[in-house]
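The records we work with from here on pair a chain with its fold. Taken together, the tokens spell out the fold as the letters spell out the chain. To see the layout at work, look at the sequence and tokens printed below.
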Amino acid sequence: MSQTSEFEWDDRYLMGYAAMDDTHKEFVDCVDAMLTASDEQMLAALDAFIDHAERHFEQEKAWMSADGFPARDCHVEEHDKVMESAYEVRKLVAEGNCLVGRDFAQAAMEWFPGHADYMDSALANWLVKRAHDGSPLVLRRKKPGAEQ
């Protein structure tokens, strides 16, 4: 059975730091793949998410460590909790429990916007400030039908 929920990229997730924005687009794609996977595809989709998240979170940790980001420990702790859950869920999905995989995908989709808005936006701002002595410039496309 395939889940109908989808997770699509939205410009509201842009942080203004290109490397982070590219990684976040891949994150959204991986979560969407889990949300829409059939039972037969779920383990592969979860493995792809885990591979992405390990690289994604390590990259952000390296950025935070190199530049002395003040909220590093809190940010890393949040990533660690996601990974701990992902590894536990992987064991259950490998045993045939695809429902827990779908629940995890839904939770990841719900977690990401808040994490991006608060944790990642602060990191992007910090990185741009350190590199260019300024704030990120983010241009977002207006969605058709959205109010001014």
Remarks:
- Residues 70-134 form one domain.
- The CA atoms of residues 42 and 51 lie 14 Å apart.
